Amino acid sequence: MIIRRAFYSILFPAAVVLPAWMLIGSAVFGGGGWQTLGALLSSIVLFVALAAMSGIVFARPGVRTAKAVSWLDVGILTVIAASAITLGFDSVASTAATVVLIVAVIGGFWAAVWQFFTEARKRVQDVFSSFEVPPAAPGAGFGPAQVPAGIRNDGEYIVIETSRDTH
Predict the structure, then answer these.
(1) N or C, which end of the chain is more exposed by having fewer CB within 10 Å?
(2) Are 4 and 69 spatial neighbours (Cβ–Cβ below 8 Å)?
(3) Which residues of the chain have pLDDT under 50?
(4) b/e sequence 64-99, b meaning 16+ C-beta within 10 Å
C-alpha cells in the first residue's frame, strides 16, 4: 500500500519532471541540435499524455478515497518512468526506450480509461441496485401483481381534463 500511495502522490509531478528530464538530459549528455529539438517535441507530447493519464487515474473515486493507485497503474508508470529516464541519458538503449515509452504511454492511457469505466459501471450498478424494491412481506398489502378483484390494473393512465366553461 505504501508503494501505491507513493505513486498516487507523484502522479502530477511526474507529468512535469519526466519530460523535463528528457529535455535536459538530451541537451547535457551529448544530444545534437536536431536531437534536442526532437526531445523538446517528444517531451511536450509526453507531458500532455502523462497529464491526461494522471487526470483520468485521479478521476476514479476509488483512487481518491484510498489515496492509492492500482497495481496496474504502478506497473505502467514504472515502465514509463524507466524509459523516460533512459531516454534522458542518451545511451545506446535510447531507440528501444523510445519504442517502450510509446507503447507504455498508449497502453497506460487505455488502461486508465478502462479502469475508469469499469469502476464507473460498478458504481452505477450499485446505485441502481439500491433502488430495487424488496419483496413485500405476506399480509403487508398488495403489490402490482396482486391487485384485488374489482380494481382494474391496466397500467398507467393519462388523464386529460377538458372543460367547456365559457365564462
Answers:
(1) C
(2) yes
(3) none
(4) eeeebbbeebbebbebbbebbebbbbbeeebeebbe
pLDDT value at residue 26: 82
- Count of alpha carbons within 13 angstroms of residue 99, beta-carbon side: 3
Q: What is the SS3 assignment for 155?
A: coil
pLDDT reported for residue 106: 95
The cell numbers describing 30, all together, are: 551529448
Nearest to 87 by CA among 147, 116, 45, 144: 45
**CA separation for the pair 157, 167 (Å, rounded):** 30
pLDDT at 74: 94
- Tell me the C-alpha distance between 78 and 23, whole Å: 19
